[in-house]
Amino acid sequence: MADGIVLEKVELRLGTRDFRFDCALPAGAVTAVTGPSGSGKSTLLNLVAGFETPDRGRVVIAGDDATDKHPSERPVSLIFQDNNLFTHLDLFTNVGLGISPSLKLSAEDWKAISEALVRVGLGGFDKRMPGTLSGGERQRAAFARTLVRRKPVLLMDEPFAALDPGLRLSMANLLLDLHRETRNTVLIVTHDPDEVGRLAEHAVFIDHGRILLQAPAKEFLGRRDIPAIADFLSG
């Protein structure tokens, strides 16, 4: 577990809300982060990403204490629901920002960007602007950017929530294909029990800022002894 993600007795207060996370998440696996709306799922991701700093405790990523590290210093890529694409920049440039924010790109970088676009099904889309793309194509572009960044941890906050069912399935399959190649550590926030079963090897359930259960996904999906989890799974 030393190569995974550890939140060691982490405590955080945001306004009047308290969060306490103590967990060890496996390396090289897809972990689903689930729970009711407002329970603290995004807060957990923000602590790993470095957008929030704990009041107490430690955040350890791949065996390295990242508690006080700036987000840019952490071995992490992120995909959110809105894809974070710059609307005034073409697709090639948007992906290139994943390698260098100043866009100082080598010939090898140019090749890597083109290969990443092809890999996610966007070959020939280099000069397309985000506004001309479908939701699924924008999500594919976000995947391409994570590929060129080559970071060992990928954080995803409900990345497929705005997509129709067919696109959700397509993007889920793409995530699994890329994960088989990279074997990175993935945390994905989801409200969908089917998505947990389809994507995850491990699951974490959060309620009122606490982790009620962390378990292999198959075990999690079979639990009905905790009322909040039973409600989630039946919903």
TrEMBL record:
GO molecular function list: ATP binding; ATP hydrolysis activity
Keywords assigned by UniProt, alphabetized: ATP-binding, Cell inner membrane, Cell membrane, Membrane, Nucleotide-binding, Translocase, Transport
SMART domains: AAA
Keyword Membrane: yes
InterPro entries registered for this protein in UniProt: AAA+_ATPase, ABC_SmlMolc_Importer, ABC_transporter-like_ATP-bd, ABC_transporter-like_CS, P-loop_NTPase
Domain ABC transporter, residue spans: 2-233
A matching Pfam family: ABC_tran
Keyword Signal: no
Transmembrane intervals: none
Family membership: Belongs to the ABC transporter superfamily.
Name of the protein: Thiamine transport system ATP-binding protein
Biological source species: Xaviernesmea oryzae
